[in-house]
Amino acid sequence: MPPPATLGRCPHPVPTDLLYILPLLFARLKGSSLRTCSSPSLPSSNSISLVSFDPFWTLSVGFAELPCRVLGGRAVIMGPVRGLKKRKRAEKNAAARVTAAAPGSGDWWDDFSRRITGHLSKEPRKFESIFKISRKTFNYICSLVRDDLMARTSNFAFTDGKILSLEDQVAIALRRLGSGESLLNIGVSFGMNHSTVSQVTWRFVEAMEERGIYHLKWPTSPEMEDIKSKFEEIQGLPNCCGAIDTTHIMMCLPSVDASNKVWVDYEKKHSMVLQAVVDPDLRFRDIITGWPGSMNEVPVLQSSGFFKMCEKGTRLNGEKVELPEKLEVREYVIGDSGFPLLPWLLTPYQGKDLADGKIEFNKRLSATRMVAQRALARLKGMWKIIQGEMWRPDKHRLPRIIYVCCLLHNIAIDLEDEVRDVMPSSSDEHDTSYKQQFCDITDDNGSILRDKLSRYLSGRLPP
């Protein structure tokens, strides 16, 4: 009789689901009997009856050659692994993705443009007109998100079964963000299910949040000196570090839901607020979003990290500028009448019958802060998913979409994308249906700084 066969102890416990169907053990000698063995890694309740034979795998135990597989560096007698077919399919799809991602002999755009159907097919199939950015910028964005989009397995495919390449995914996401069209329309235009459009866009948003973060940051000291110089060239405001403004991202929400009342703004619309600090090149330097439209500029400002840092003196704390007659001016930003007048935030003079010097100051300040209005107008004009009313958006995801649109806005500026300069210019108004709000909060130090600048700009310095 052949020696008994038992499972050797493994370095790690053997999961029960790996011991699915164990092979029947046969000795080389004819007439050997069926035996039962137990794994020392499992409790006694998991005793294993060996019920089949697979000659492909062998293990020598005494004088017998027994079916086995290797796990954790030790031989373990076991049968076919559950889910083998499913893994093979996954491996096949992964191989298809690699093939799709590999550069082909032709240009990616040639193949992609041939897929365009629907209303887009009636227009000139020009890359720049569909995505509103140049190929150079598109390639850079692809390089940013490549690792994130290609590292995660997915079965995203066109309706003809072709797996989406990296460029396909980025193109679909950019079209969704740039056009603001429905998921269904984009799916029809590019030949895919609308759920695929949704998933691809969200994965792109997640990747851009991580990889594009350095395109939206507060300026370094050398950058700030350049910003101050450019602001002064506009209307003569010295030591100005930015222009601040807010805009509303409108949403279509069901009025019957009482929880949606908090999103109703002063114009009786559902909206989410975006506050931004902008430099002279229309680049966003600081943003905060996610707050409901029922909040006006003051509480949104006070909730921001920008406000808290300025109040603590860790931001806008650079060197003061000394003007004629020993007039010192600290760093500051400018805003409209909806913001409070603070030591580091200057707003226009309010009221009627203002003195000529104050009127002149208001004109210069208004002309200078137009950069913020232009930036927000261009943001909405380029990334139309946040223009107009969004149909019942996910209010937890919307701030992240807004943030990524701001990143894309900055990337086009940083890369000096020529397409943004030839696109039809949008109005400087970003909240055309919203009336100007007024804030009466005034800080004494803010008033003193504003009066100093008013006298300096009007040329009426004290003797």
Automatic annotation (TrEMBL):
One GO CC term on file: nucleus
Record localization: Nucleus
Alphabetized UniProt keyword annotations: Hydrolase, Metal-binding, Nuclease, Nucleus
One Pfam family linked to the record: DDE_Tnp_4
PANTHER family, alphabetized: EXPRESSED PROTEIN (PTHR22930:SF291), PTHR22930
Family as reported in the entry's similarity comment: Belongs to the HARBI1 family.
Name the UniProt record assigns to this protein: (wild Malaysian banana) hypothetical protein
Species: Musa acuminata subsp. malaccensis
